[in-house]
Amino acid sequence: MLYIVGLGLSDERDITLRGLDCVRKCDKLYMEAYTSLLSFGLASNGLSKLEELYGKEVVVADREMVEEKADQMLTEALESDVGFLVVGDPFGATTHSDIVVRARQMGVKVKVIHNASVMNAIGACGLQLYRYGETVSIPFFTETWRPDSFYEKIKNSRQLGLHTLCLLDIRVKEPTIESLCRGKKVYEPPRFMTINTAIDQLLEVEAARGESVYNEDTLCVGIARLGSDSQKIVAGPMKDLRDVDFGDPLHCLVIAGETHDMEGQMLDFYRRSK
User: Model's pTM, two decimal places?
Assistant: First the structure.
């Protein structure tokens, strides 16, 4: 059996009781470690806090392992119970749906244990979930690569008066272009996009496209470390959020559409004091 277990948003304690039962009976555990981030840290004995809680080793599964070598994990699941641990909810990333398809094609039984993810916990900012349009991802720009496909999606949602959740880029264990050219991978330091950088890039794209989809006065909500004790939520126009120090990752951004009275009252709790 392959158990795909959602870990929730904050730390090792966010796993559900059902998920913990599955984890403790698994013969081997893998943890997906590139589509998101969990603040589990290290315990005083040097083990990860996850390993301390579970009482067994957790193998970190990076992008290469998940996307290129998942068959190894699936083959193991044909003969034993294997747990694949995912920050948030198992279906928060398309990669995990792909693993389910491949597992079933190989004849591996799959059981999914759900948990909270950014897709539902974002309701904490006060904008109601059924009033969101398509979620978009904002990638880090480079000197030669400045994609703007998210712009059209934001435009479509705003024309309907809907809010847009922007998921911000995470780059963990990404090989440098130079190392790929040399045939020996050297990895970049981990990077996590901030709300400030996302707004800079969004405004750059608006300036280039010039379709008045949004501007520096557009109401947004910046959210950092959603679901944790140190969660930070600030609402205001883009130009104000650019100057806010949101602290440690992970960050995400909501571009507000039309708001009704209750949403406005909730957002008032998160506006910066003047």
Answer: 0.89
